[in-house]
Amino acid sequence: GRFLAAVATTGGVGLWDLKSGETMLPHLLSMRADYYWCVRFHPDGKHVGFGLWSGFVEVIRLTDGDYTVKQDVPIHRGRVWDLVFTRDGKKMVTGGDDGVILIWDI
Q1: CA-to-CA distance for 61 and 48, rounded, in angstroms?
Q2: pLDDT, tens digit, for every residue of 23-59?
Q3: Rounded CA gap, 46 and 37, in Å?
Q4: In this structure, is the dihedral angle defined by the CA atoms of residues 96, 71, 24 and 62, taken in order, positive or negative?
Q5: In whole angstroms, what is the distance from residue 89 CA to residue 18 CA?
Q6: What tens digit of pLDDT does each residue of 5-20 get?
Q7: Cα–Cα separations (whole angstroms), residue 55 to 19, 21, 83, 84
Q8: Can you give the three-state secondary structure of the chain, one letter per residue?
């Protein structure tokens, strides 16, 4: 892939362009944050999804940080343990501390 994403044990997150070595979306993503738990790239290579400690799920466009998925209230009670996109990219599955598995239309 062209991009690298990492979530720190402290909850921070970073995103880098491997060709240029530049940090991407520094105004939006920070390794100093304390609320990210998991990250997955969308199969289209243009979006990335994040699960947060707070139960929120975000999917953003890599080029400009626009949100494709963002909630006003947490969708899971407790942290989002993991998320995955289907191969065709039309659905996303999330699982959290609440023991609930959600299937999203993207």
Answers
A1: 7
A2: 999 888 887 778 899 999 999 999 999 999 999 999 9
A3: 20
A4: positive
A5: 23
A6: 999 988 889 999 999 9
A7: 33, 31, 12, 15
A8: CCEEEEECCCCCEEEEECCCCCECCCCCCCCCCCCEEEEEECCCCCEEEEEECCCCEEEEECCCCCEEECCCCCCCCCCEEEEEECCCCCEEEEEECCCCEEEEEC
